[in-house]
Amino acid sequence: MSETEHRTRRRLWRVLGPVSLILTGVGWLAIGLVWGSRVVHRPRAVAHATPIRYATVSTGAGANGTYAVLPRRHVTRSGGSTLNPTTGHSYGVIDAPTWNAGQEMAARTGGRLVTIDDAAEQAWLVSTFGGGEKFWIGLTDVDHEGSWEWTNGQRPSYTNWAGGEPNDQHRRGENFAVMNWGHLGTWNDLNPEDAPAFGVVAAIVEWEPRAARATETIRVYSSPRATAPTHGSGRR
Question: To the nearest whole number, what is the mean pLDDT of the chain?
Answer without folding.
Answer: 74
